[in-house]
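BUG: 3D viewer hangs when loading the predicted structure for this chain

Environment: internal workstation, default settings.
Expected: structure renders.
Actual: progress bar stalls at 90%.

Input used:
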Amino acid sequence: MTETSSDAITDGKYVELTYLVRDSKTGAVLTEVTRPLNYVHGVNEILAPTIMRELEGKVQGQRVDLLVDCTAIYGPRDESLVITEKVAAVPREYRQVGTQILMENNLGHMKSFLVTKIEGDKITFDGNNPLCGKEVIYQVKVHLVRDATAEEKEHGGRDEPKPET
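Structure tokens produced before the viewer hung:
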């Protein structure tokens, strides 16, 4: 059975996909999304625009492997966003590599930083995107493509029920 063009990803199609991001040099998995993400193509973007463009015309069951220079997406690495402090000056709940922290600069702008290193009495925070400066391979698997309902188009995807509080 051959797929028809009406089954392909185009504007107004509801799409479910998963993806994996690998470092192109080491092959290490940097990110993996195994629970399908959903969106309406052309209404919202869940991945970088270059990746979204590559998905156009793809069909259910297809996998797209795309080499991406993350500098083109996130800009060049900015070493001024790497901050080293004394561990003792940092609240205990932030003293773990991989912890994400929202910090405010002197202009009142918020920026997300990641704890990247703890050595001796020093802790390092990095405000660069973790993929910044890397060349990666996005492996995107298309799980479902169908016409979006009016409600899905309005919400940009399936309106997920909110957990009750």
